[in-house]
Amino acid sequence: SAVISQKPSRDICQRGTSLTIQCQVDSQVTMMFWYRQQPGQSLTLIATANQGSEATYESGFVIDKFPISRPNLTFSTLTVSNMSPEDSSIYLCSVSERAYEQYFGPGTRLTVT
Amino acid sequence: DAKTTQPPSMDCAEGRAANLPCNHSTISGNEYVYWYRQIHSQGPQYIIHGLKNNETNEMASLIITEDRKSSTLILPHATLRDTAVYYCIVRVRETSGSRLTFGEGTQLTVNP
């Protein structure tokens, strides 16, 4: 199974600033996903990141707020821009190696003050 | 993707079987049932999936009713480490993989 790491594991940021979260996978994968989990809530998909093309965003999420890069098959970044306290969440990346299985990273816990 | 309904919480005694139900009455013929769990402060973990036959792996068993409108995840001998939120997800299996739509899940608490 794929091993996924994320950096940073947690951060406290001031409103109006931006934070870039890194996701590194130990093998080449085609599809990577970014999810958000707000406090006490379930996971919500932000976007799908494919190498060599622009990310595909879900309803309610826009590129200006959550720009994503996918420079190669083992790495992706998610930036949370112009942060507000409502952006305080856990952000998780995941990869899909096979049709039925996704592997998730440990998450990045973001607090915006 | 078909909608699923799960109880918000369940309790189980350590060493006993934990049976987690899921209703998916609008499931289509080409949709699979997947189970994931999320232990506190960790990313979700894949458990098992199935189409219509019962499935078993080293983690759990999945029982799907004949009409496929409901299923049960069985943890045969629950341990304290099985305390987690369990998500039942119904979706079409795609060869290239696709996104998961998480509901609210069931918070399973295993008690000593």
How many distinct helices of chain A?
0
Q: Mind describing the biggest β-sheet of chain B?
A: 5 strands, mixed
Total count of strands of chain A? 11
Strand order of the largest sheet of chain B: 1-9-8-3-4
Largest interface: chains, residues each: A-B, 24 and 25 residues
Taking all residues together, what is the mean pLDDT of chain A? 93
Oligomeric nature of the chains: heterodimer
Mean pLDDT across all residues of chain B, rounded? Answer: 91
Beta-strand percentage of chain A? Answer: over 45%
Strand content of chain B: over 45%
User: How many distinct beta strands of chain B?
Assistant: 9
Order of helices and strands of chain A: EEEEEEEEEEE
- The CA-CA distance between the termini of chain A, in Å, is 37 Å
* Secondary-structure content class of chain A: mainly beta
| Low-confidence runs of chain B | none
Question: Which helices and strands occur, and which strands form pairs?
Answer:
The complex is a heterodimer of chains A (113) and B (112).
Chain A: E1 4-7, E2 10-13, E3 19-25, E4 31-37, E5 43-50, E6 56-57, E7 68-72, E8 75-80, E9 89-98, E10 101-104, E11 108-112
Parallel strand pairs in A: 2-11
Antiparallel strand pairs in A: 1-3, 3-8, 4-5, 4-9, 5-6, 7-8, 9-10, 9-11
Chain B: E1 9-13, E2 18-23, E3 31-38, E4 45-50, E5 55-56, E6 61-64, E7 70-75, E8 84-92, E9 106-111
Parallel strand pairs in B: 1-9
Antiparallel strand pairs in B: 2-7, 3-4, 3-8, 5-6, 6-7, 8-9
In words, what does this structure look like?
- The complex is a heterodimer of chains A (113) and B (112).
- By secondary structure, chain A is mostly beta strands.
- Chain A is built from no helices and 11 strands.
- Chain A has strands at residues 4-7, 10-13, 19-25, 31-37, 43-50, 56-57, 68-72, 75-80, 89-98, 101-104, 108-112.
- In chain A, the strands form 2 sheets. In chain A, strands 2, 4, 5, 6, 9, 10 and 11 form a 7-stranded mixed sheet that branches. Chain A has a 4-stranded antiparallel sheet with strand order 1-3-8-7, with no helix packed on it.
- The N and C termini of chain A lie far apart (37 Å).
- With 112 residues, chain B is mainly β.
- Helix content of chain B is 0%, strand content 46%.
- Chain B has no helices and 9 strands.
- In chain B, a hairpin with a 6-residue loop joins strand 3 and strand 4.
- Chain B starts with 8 loop residues before the first strand and ends with a strand.
- Classes of the chains: A mainly beta (113), B mainly beta (112).
- The interface between A and B is medium-sized, with 24 and 25 residues.
